[in-house]
Amino acid sequence: MALDPRLLRLRGGPAPTGDPALDAAIGESGGDFHDKVYTTRLDAVLGWSRKFSLFQYPFVTACCGMEYMAASANHYDTDRFGAALPRFSPRQSDMLMVVGTITHKQAPVLKRVYDQMCEPKWVVAVGACAVSGGFYQNYTSVPGCDKIIPVDVYVPGCPPRPETILDAIVKLQEKIQNQKHEFI
Ligand code: SF4
Description:
Elements: H1 5-10, H2 20-28, H3 33-36, H4 42-51, E1 56-60, H5 64-72, E2 95-99, H6 107-116, E3 122-126, H7 128-132, E4 153-155, H8 162-178
Helix pairs in contact: 4-8, 5-8
Residues 62-64, 100-101, 127-129, 134, 158-159 line the site of iron/sulfur cluster.
């Protein structure tokens, strides 16, 4: 039964809002309107849903891959962060993990993989080689994968510990939550 909002107010309920439709809805809820209805921004909902449904594409080329495997296995369990499932198909992934040295020969392949991934997408550079070329200051290595594709989070270390990779995932999730989302 719909209750008059003024009556709800007398019973300790919410004050009338001045909007007849909203006041009617509050009345119909029997006074527990605020327990049933949550208001938020579309941006915040999109950010929340996207940050907890990341699908990784691991682009693994060198020794950092061992640490990446450790981070993905059951002991460290990236599944806890909603970022577990490597897809191995760029079209089904939205989080590119660049793990290891990128040579100039591999650069066009990395670019193609990035281009094939669905939007919106994010990139994590894992390890000194992916971040800056590491100690390979020579003509074969790309001095950082951000010379080829945009990078969202950089993970330092040679190699980085699995905890550092987990920290990068959490940092990326914070970034996704706070960024402006296009409603596609
Ligand atoms: S950062 Fe170190 S461990 Fe990682 S790929 Fe480069 S050389 Fe190997």
